[in-house]
Amino acid sequence: VAAIQEYLNSIVRQAFPSADEEAMAIATWGMVHGLAFLHLDGKLDASSDAVVADRIRAAVAAMLGVVTAGQRG
């Protein structure tokens, strides 16, 4: 778990240098974990690997877009 946390922290440091590193890393981990469980529970369209990948990419991009827009203001 410590290795995952440090990996996420390093990504946050690079992508969002002004963010609260630990809070952003935990939020990102939680979002990805939640998406994985939605997928495993059959809550997301899983008609193909490409559909799943596109949906996950779109969700992550939407979340990161909100964060990035908030940092500009």
Structural class, judged by helices and strands? mainly alpha
The tally of helices reads 3
Q: In percent, how helical is the residue content?
A: over 70%
Q: What do the pLDDT scores average to?
A: 84
Spell the H/E element sequence: HHH
First-residue to last-residue Cα separation: 34 Å
Major sheet attributes: none
What's the count of strands? 0
The percentage of residues in β strands lies in under 5%
Q: Enumerate the spans where pLDDT stays under 50 for 5 or more consecutive residues.
A: none
Q: Features of this protein?
A:
mainly alpha, elongated, single chain, 73 residues
Write up this protein:
The chain has 73 residues and is mostly helical. 79% of the residues lie in helices and 0% in strands. The chain is built from three helices and no strands. It has helices at residues 2-15, 21-40, 49-72. Helix 1 (2-15) packs across helix 2 (21-40). The longest helix has 24 residues, at 49-72.
